[in-house]
Every structure is written in structure tokens, then in C-alpha cells.
Design goal:
The structure holds 2 protein chains of 2 kinds. By secondary structure, chain A is mainly beta. In chain A, 0% of the residues lie in helices and 59% in strands. Chain A contains no helices and 11 strands. The chains are: A mainly beta, B mainly beta.
Amino acid sequence: GENVEQHPSTLSVQEGDSAVIKCTYSDSASNYFPWYKQELGKGPQLIIDIRSNVGEKKDQRIAVTLNKTAKHFSLHITETQPEDSAVYFCAATLTDKLIFGTGTRLQVFP
Amino acid sequence: ETGVTQTPRHLVMGMTNKKSLKCEQHLGHNAMYWYKQSAKKPLELMFVYSLEERVENNSVPSRFSPECPNSSHLFLHLHTLQPEDSALYLCASSQDPLEVGYGYTFGSGTRLTVV
């Protein structure tokens, strides 16, 4: 079955710096890769996603890159702000079921 | 609010109690999910319903019993739970098949503590 590994588990950055979170997946048939942000006391919320026929997607300060050959994808956050502090989850899907990574706790210090 | 509402937000129950978690979605989705979120573990898929039919049960103990009376409502009935069942229980909904840009929409979860 699909397995998704996510690194690092915790990440601390200074406000204004960039943050990068990486995930790898095991099933080459996976074709959809969303990223979720979970703030304290809330459920995960979709922030960006990418399909396997696209190599990169950007939305303001966040971007996702996908390397199908290496089976890994990454979340990039530029110009980080304290409100970016949260737990971020990657996921990969096979036949519409989402398998989640273990999460990355991002702390942005002012 | 995300369009998926879960109640109650917090629940403390004894091991001999029976309680139910409720989830309601107002997004017109046709698939609903229960996930368990424990500390330092990946999100664990418990049950999947598509068009009100259970399509997946991920080896969940029988002390957890789901119910999906219609495409907008999902319940998780709990009985004789164990302390290790304490976790955040998340409900999610989606279109089946998944739509780009939407994925799953999660509720805020029910924080369950079994004492």
C-alpha cells in the first residue's frame, strides 16, 4: 500500500526566512498531492495541492514542487510570518484515498 | 467554519459509557470519512462512506461503530472504550472522486478523553 514519509518533524525559523518541508511516497501510481495546515484546536485545512502532471505550483508565499521520478514532493513557504506557525501535513492519494504524512510542526519566531 | 461541523468539541467518557460523535457537512459532498489523530502518529483512516455506503473499514475495533444515515450526516458510536482510544477524532468530506483544489474538508474534531 501507499506509504508517505515526511521530514522534518519539527522546524523552527526566523520570521522572514524560508521553510521547506519534504515528503516521499512509495506508490508510483499516486496522482494527487495535497498539503494541509492544522492550527491549534482546528482540523487540517487544505492550503495547496498538485496533480502528477504538473511539476510546480505557486500561490502567493507558498509553493509545491513534485518530482515524479524520485517520488518526492516539497512545500516551500517564503517570507514566513508568525501566523504560519502550525502543523503541516502532506498527503498522497491512490484511487481517491488520502494517505497522510506524520506532520511537521513549524514555529516561526518574530 | 469550514462547512464540516463536528459535535461535541470535547468529550470525557468512562470506559463503560456509550456516547456518539456527530458530523454534518453542508458542502454537497458525497463521501465522508472518520480519522483518528493521536499524538506523534499519522492521521489514521478509520471509515469511509461513499453515497452512504461504507466502502472501507480499516481494521477498526468493534467498539467503534459508524453510521451514515444520509450524505450530509455521519456518526461514530462509541462503547466500552479503552484509555488508548483517547485522541482527536476528525470527520472529513469530499467529492468522490476527489476534485483538484478541494481535496478533503475537515471538521475541527472532537477531543475524546477516556478515563
